[in-house]
Amino acid sequence: MTQTAAKTDSRNQRFALTAAACGVFVAGMVGMSFAAVPLYNLFCDVTGYGGTTRQADAAPGYTVDRDVAVRFDSNIGNGLGWSFRPVQRQVEIKVGEVGRIAYVAENRGSEPSTGTATFNVTPAAAGLYFNKIACFCFTEQTLAPGESVEMPVEFFVDPAFADDPELRNMTTITLSYTFYPSTTQSADASHAQTGESVEAAL
Prior knowledge:
By secondary structure, the chain is of the alpha+beta class. It has a domain at 50-186: Ctag/Cox11 (Pfam 04442) (Sandwich). The protein has two helices and ten strands. The strands form two sheets. A five-stranded mixed sheet has the order 1-7-9-5-3. The chain starts with a helix and ends with a helix.
């Protein structure tokens, strides 16, 4: 083997090693990003960080002599031809008391469509104490054209809310939901469009 060929072979090996290292790094970063999502969600569920509410199996069984107004907000993400609104805009409950309201969603499009709702609470500090017993969030909802559905929400504000000195002047909490097109539906639509393009090309 000539000296030039040896140098070329050595350079190719370095390139191959570099490419392999980059591939491992990228794969590791992707894996970490997927792991970060559930870990972040777990952190938010436990701490109420970012206005994330808590999930409870039952109410605390007692109330505190302090009233709080809970407002309800609704939003629709781009690409979902629905209307979406709370049946009531606001309720006033005692801390520890179970509140029950409902949201109504209607498909105003000409085709069946699927949506998924996310939520948050403001002020964010209240998320630690806002508990939901029943909720439609993160559950795919498919509606036929013109179909509407009423979706209940059951919640309470933890009595510990009244003992938090930083929240002693807080009198109003807002629970906000946003419905987005389902990721499953978006993927199916993208796949269908790709298939149509391939058929057209053939």
